[in-house]
Q: What sequence folds into this?
């Protein structure tokens, strides 16, 4: 009976996500920001009443969460598991070919948020560098720990490693990147690193998308601290702003 209930639950969730407008709504919430039904209706290109019906369905299936603040009602993803499931579906949804060529827009392919951590080419390169340098150590296929030198490096950034380890959430884990089809760093360590990068102005977050722009300071720090070779900057891209540059990246 339990297995039958699971089958029904999976089919209901799959059917909900399969509707194109609901897919757009869910993907737009993957940057971790809450949005109103009016904003989501515009994103999904549907009427306000249709968006409300879609959101009610997604809420019933525990895929989104409603936040009420005074007269305002905002929606966000229910939790990080929904974002992880969407990322996985994005990987599966892109047809596999012997020589994979990503078709993701440059500004999203290079750097973006994946719920609360960093994704894209920059994040994958950083993930690989942390493993190569021995700062991250695999404990199994779905978890990492920090080596002594890695722990010292992250503490040097002001990240309280002990506090992250004490949380119920996974400390550090690979998260499959849908544009690169390779892992970037997830878990509480990945989230803490993104917040540190934003606070130190290594990256700047786009106001209306999940895209992140690498600043000149960020490029310098990534090279100095991690020995990371970052793809060349194209300052004419759509994310160009004061102190930040967009990047045209080629997949490695």
A:
């Amino acid at each position: 009976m339990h297995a039958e209930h699971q089958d029904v639950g999976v089919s209901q969730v799959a059917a909900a996500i399969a509707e194109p407008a609901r897919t757009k709504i869910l993907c737009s919430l993957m940057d971790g920001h809450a949005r109103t039904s009016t904003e989501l209706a515009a994103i999904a290109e549907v009427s306000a009443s249709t968006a409300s019906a879609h959101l009610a369905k997604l809420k019933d299936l525990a895929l989104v969460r409603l936040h009420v603040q005074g007269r305002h009602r905002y929606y966000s993803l229910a939790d990080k598991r929904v974002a992880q499931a969407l990322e996985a579906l994005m990987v599966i949804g892109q047809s596999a070919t012997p020589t994979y060529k990503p078709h993701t827009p440059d500004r999203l392919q290079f750097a973006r948020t994946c719920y609360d951590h960093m994704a894209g080419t920059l994040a994958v390169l950083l993930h690989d560098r942390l493993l190569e340098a021995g700062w991250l150590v695999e404990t199994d296929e779905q978890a990492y720990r920090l080596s002594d030198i890695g722990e010292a490096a992250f503490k040097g950034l002001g990240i309280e490693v002990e506090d992250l380890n004490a949380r119920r959430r996974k400390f550090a884990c690979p998260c499959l990147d849908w544009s690169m089809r390779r892992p970037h760093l997830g878990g509480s360590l990945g989230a803490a690193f993104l917040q540190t990068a934003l606070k130190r102005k290594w990256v700047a977050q786009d106001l209306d998308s999940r895209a992140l722009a690498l600043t000149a300071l960020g490029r310098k720090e990534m090279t100095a601290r991690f020995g990371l070779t970052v793809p060349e900057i194209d300052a004419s891209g759509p994310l160009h702003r004061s102190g930040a540059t967009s990047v045209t990246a080629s997949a490695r």
Notes: Confidence is low (pLDDT under 50) at residues 95-103, 233-252.
